[in-house]
Amino acid sequence: MAEFSPVTGRYVTIDVMGDEIKVFFLENGEGQPLVCQHTAGCHNHQWRDLLEDEDITSNYRVIAYDLVHHGKSDPPKNREWWQEEYTLTADYYVAFINAFCDALGLEDPIFMGSSFGGQVALQLAYRHPDRYKAVIPVEAADYSPGFYLDWWRHPHANAAQVCASGVWDLMAPQSPDKDRWATWFYYTQGSEAFKGDLYFYSVDHDLRGKLEEIDGERCPVIILTGEYDYLTTPEDSKRTADQIKGAEFIEMEGIGHFPMSENYPVFKGYLEQALQKIGERAKTTTVS
Amino acid sequence: MTVGTEQSAIETWGEEFRRVSDEDPELQGHGEYYSCSYLMDMEEHEIQVVMHKGKVEEILIDPGPLDKRYQFELKASADTWRKFGEEVPPPMYHGIWSASFQRDLSLEGDLLILMQNLRCFTRQFELLRKTGVPV
C-alpha cells in the first residue's frame, strides 16, 4: 500500500561566513513559520512526528533543516573541509541559522531547537532578539560542560555505537522502544560530526553572566526540559530561565533529552503550552 | 535470613541473570563479539560477570582477591543499585551515564573495553530491570 506523506524535502544553497552550503530541509504546513533544529550529531528526522502532525501544521509552517555536516546537508562545497577538525562555534552556528531563514524569506519565525539546538536558541535570543518572534529552547541552559569528549570518535571503539548507545540513557526508560531505537539509529549516522557539535554545546556556548542581557519580553523565551535529562537537568534550565527577563520554564515529566524524537505525544502537550504562551504574548504586545 | 539462605538467594539471582541474559533476543542478536568481564560493586555484594561471544561464561558472587579478574568496574551504593533494578527507574538512575554524571556511580578500570562493548553492555545492564538486584 502506497501512502505519501505531506512532508516535502528541498535543498537551498546559502552563504555562511564565506562557506557555500547546500542545505536540506523538510517542511509541511502553513502559517506561522516554526523552524526546528535537531540535536548534536543527528539530523532532521528527529522532528518526523511534528512535521506530520496536522494539529500543528494547520497553523504553523514547520521547517526542519539539517545543519551543515549533518544528514543530507553536506560539508561546505567551496572549502577543503577535510583538512581540518570540525568544531562548531556559536558565531558560525548563529550565522547559519540567520542565513537559512533569510534564504527562505521567513518573517518573524519561531525558532525551536533541542540540546545544542536549544543552546543556540538562547544565543539567538541574546544576539538577534528582533529577528525571531520567539524561541523555544528545549533541554537548554546557559552552560553545559562535560560532553566534549574524545570517546565520540575514538579509533579503537565503534564510534557509531559509542555515539548511539552513549546517548541512550539521555532518553527516559518509559519512552516507546520504537522511538528510542529510531533515535539510536539516527545517532549511528553522525559520529564524525558529534564531537565537533559538542565543542559548541559544552565549550563555546557559555552565557553565564550574560543572561540578564536577554530581553525575554522582546523575544519570548520558553524553555522546555525533560525530567530524565541528566546532561541539562531541569534544575539547569530553571536556573537559566530565572535569570532571563520574562522567560518561562516548563519541566516535562516522563521524558528525556530528545523529547520530540523519543516520545512525541508527550512532547506535543508541552509544545502546545509553549506555543500558546507565545501566542498570548503576541496578543499582549499588539494590544499594548 | 541466615547467611546460608542469603547466599542461596544471591546465587539464585546469579542464575536468573545468566538465564535472562542468555535468552535475551537483543543480546543474542548483536552479541557475537560481546566478550568482556566486569565487576558490579553493589556495596553489600560484588558481582563479577564474564561474557564470551554474547553468552554468560561465569558469574562470581563476592569473588575473592585471587578470583577478581575483570576489565572494568561499576561501583555505587546499594541504594543506587536498587534503583537501577526497578522496572522503571527514577530519573538519574536510568543508566550508567546518568548515574555517573548525577549520582554516585563511578566507572573504573579499562573503560575502552566498556566503550568497545557499549551497545551490548547497555542492554545487559538494563536487564537488571527484569531480574532486580541482589542487594
- Low-confidence parts of chain A, pLDDT < 50 over ≥5 residues? none
Percent helix range of chain A: 25-40%
Main pleated sheet of chain B:
5 strands, mixed
Radius of gyration of chain A: 18 Å
Low-confidence stretches of chain B: none
Biggest β-sheet strands, sense, barrel of chain A:
6 strands, mixed
Indicate the CATH topology of chain B: Nonspecific Lipid-transfer Protein, Chain A
The level 1 CATH classification of chain A is Alpha Beta
The outline of chain A comes out as globular
How does this structure look, described?
The complex is a heterodimer of chains A (288) and B (135). Chain A has helices spanning 48-51, 54-57, 90-103, 116-127, 159-166, 177-187, 191-204, 234-242, 259-262, 264-287; strands spanning 8-16, 19-28, 32-37, 60-65, 110-114, 134-138, 222-226, 248-252. Chain A is of the alpha/beta class and 288 residues long. Chain A has a single domain (8-287), classed as Rossmann fold. In chain A, the strands form two sheets. Chain A has a six-stranded mixed sheet. In chain A, α5 crosses α6. The radius of gyration of chain A is 18 Å and the shape is globular. The N and C termini of chain A lie far apart (53 Å). The mean pLDDT of chain A is 97. Chain B has 135 residues and is an alpha+beta fold. Chain B has a single domain (3-131), classed as Nonspecific Lipid-transfer Protein, Chain A, CATH 3.30.1050. In chain B, 44% of the residues lie in helices and 21% in strands. Chain B has seven helices and five strands. Chain B has helices at 3-23, 25-30, 78-84, 96-102, 111-116, 118-126, 128-131, and strands at residues 36-41, 46-52, 55-61, 72-75, 106-109. In chain B, strands 3-2-1-4-5 form a five-stranded mixed sheet. Chain B starts with a helix and ends with a helix. The A-B interface holds A 146, 151, 154, 156-158, 161-162, 164-166, 168-170, 172-174, 227-228, 230-231, 233 and B 88-89, 91-92, 94-98, 101-102, 112, 115-116, 118-119, 122, 126, 129.
